[in-house]
Amino acid sequence: MSKSLNVNGEAWGRAVGQGQTRYVGITGPMPIFQSTEGATETPVREAGVFNNLYIYVASNSANISSVITLRKSRADTSVTVTYTSGQTGVKQDTSNTATYANTDEADYSIVLAAGSGDINFRVLGIEFAPTDTTKTIQWAGWTGTGLSTASTTVYKSIGGSNTTTATEADAKYRIRGTFTASNFYATVSSNGRTTDTTVGMRKNGAAGNMSVIYTSGQTGAKEDTSNTDSLVAGDDYNLYYTTSTGGGTWQSSREYVQFSSTANQFIFSVARPAQAFGAANTWYFPLCGDLSVPGNQEANAQIYPEFEFTAKELETYVSANSASFTSTFTIRDGGADSSVTISYTTGQTGLKTDSTNTATIGVDQNISTKLATPAGSGSITIGWVGSMGETAGVAGAVTPARTMRLFEGFSIKLISGRVILHQKQ
After folding, report:
1. Minimal CA–CA distance to 58: which of 117, 126, 123?
2. Contact at 8 Å (CB) between 126 and 53?
3. Mean pLDDT across 168-191
4. If we measure between CA atoms, which residue out of 228, 299, 312, 220 comes closest to residue 263?
5. For residue 392, what is the DSSP state?
6. Quick check: 158 and 208 in contact, CB under 8 A?
7. Which pLDDT score, from 0 to 100, does residue 392 have?
8. Do 53 and 93 touch, CB atoms closer than 8 A?
9. Neighbours of 148 (CB within 10 A)
10. Alpha-carbon distance 286 to 299, whole Å?
11. According to the model, what pLDDT value does residue 407 have?
């Protein structure tokens, strides 16, 4: 089994209005949807198949249908979901697939006809299986950033929002498996800088092997197709931007990097530097996306995978902690707390990892990450929350699901002797 789960999440949601066609990438934070498709495309540099499109809509005031479609090199695929007027909740396309060559790009289009109202998205997700079954392929994506300060370097964690930090320690993502990072890709929408701007990857606090340089006025997509970074458990990895002297503003739309694993592993990260969380609340985070303060409705963060995997290596980086309470992070498995958990007592900061416990995520069994803070004073400040998925050694990971239709909207799936009842919306 070489599948990966690619998730695009936004705690507060993103809306598309009537009469609009908008585009968004397949992984990372969910930025403001773009009207230009080139600003969102994810470079697919390993041939394979996308399937099992997952969408969660929190609200829908549109009086027309909304159509979400996986795109391949700016053309529609058959992988698509439609929300009719007022429909909300989970919808999935578990029937159709789309085959990609290693020269294609992937993104989603969201199309609303003329009418009234809008539709608000919280989570988009899709699975990918490469043709080379010895590999697991996944992408990390970043929301674009504007730079105008001369001679400076700023950083983002894996899959971070458009917010940067000048403190690299707050952005370093701790790798917990073995990966090859390749095909660093950036898209720049405008460039008023009078000198070079460099964007690329950092490994263990030093320049990695991958970067692209935009000279004065250059825009568009650039890709480092020659270099790679080899990553092992314990390495720190993050994105950086460096400006040279001079003035003007440089604005990127999106950055991506491709991760390859021969150990059936894939990465999750939700990130935003220096995001504070207060007392007496419970928050739920999507597996990948923006770590802006989310609501306390778990449905807004969940995703239902259509293959089994082991969730493991929950980790968090805390940069400041004035909380008088203990803050607890937990992977949620099927709407309940799993044994995979981390706690920060009063004043504790830095990196913490649960490398002991795991959770088996079954087919159609929702997963998210929870932060619980009891009553008290102060707050805990987080840079990112990460974890890892692994398909190796999971019972049923390579066993096809056998599905029986019960009645409209429900199905039973028999996975490794377990019966799962699932409602399709």
Report:
1. 123
2. yes
3. 98
4. 312
5. T
6. no
7. 75
8. yes
9. 13
10. 10
11. 37
Q: If you search the block for the tokens 């990260």, which residue do you land on?
A: 269
In one letter, which amino acid is 288?
Answer: C
Which residues on neighbouring strands pair with residue 172, listed in sequence order?
none
Residue with structure tokens 């006809």? 113
CA–CA separation, 344 and 2 (whole Å):
34
CA–CA separation, 151 and 209 (whole Å): 21
User: Half-sphere exposure (CA, 13 Å, Cβ side) for 272?
Assistant: 23
Can you read off the two tokens belonging to residue 160? 């971070």
User: Residue 316 corresponds to which tokens in the numbers above?
Assistant: 């968090």
**Four-point Cα dihedral 288, 289, 290, 294, nearest 10:** -70
Distance CA 53, CA 76 (A): 14
pLDDT of 406 higher than 50: no
SS3 29: strand
Distance of CA 139 to the CA centre of its chain: 8
Integer Cα distance of 173 and 28 in angstroms: 14
Q: Which residues contact 331 (CB under 8 A, 6 or more apart)?
A: 311, 314, 338, 340, 341, 359, 367, 368, 369, 370, 387
| Angle (CA) 194 206 254, round 5° | 50
Q: What is the spatial distance between Cα 136 and Cα 178, in angstroms, rounded to a whole number?
A: 11
CA distances from 74 to 15, 190, 258 (A): 22, 21, 20
Distance CA 108, CA 89 (A): 18
- Here the tokens at position 203 are 């490994």
For the four alpha carbons of 45, 48, 50 and 52, in that order, the dihedral sign comes to negative
Tell whether pTM > 0.85.
yes
DSSP code, position 160:
B
Length of the chain equals: 425
- What single letter denotes the amino acid at residue 164? T
Side-chain-facing half-sphere of 303: CA atoms under 13 Å: 28
- Both tokens of 24, joined, read 């968004």
User: Which pLDDT tens digit goes with each residue over 182-222?
Assistant: 999 999 999 999 999 999 999 999 999 999 999 999 999 99
Please, what are the domains in the chain?
Answer: 4-130 (2.60.120), 140-261 (2.60.120), 265-390 (2.60.120)
DSSP 149-205: -SS-EEEE-TTB-S--BS-GGGT-EE--S-EEEEEEEEEEEEE--SS-EEEEEEETT
DSSP 264-314: SEEEEEEEEEEEEE-SSEEEEE-SSEE-S---S-GGGT-B--SS-EEEEEE
Question: What does the pLDDT read at residue 1?
Answer: 52
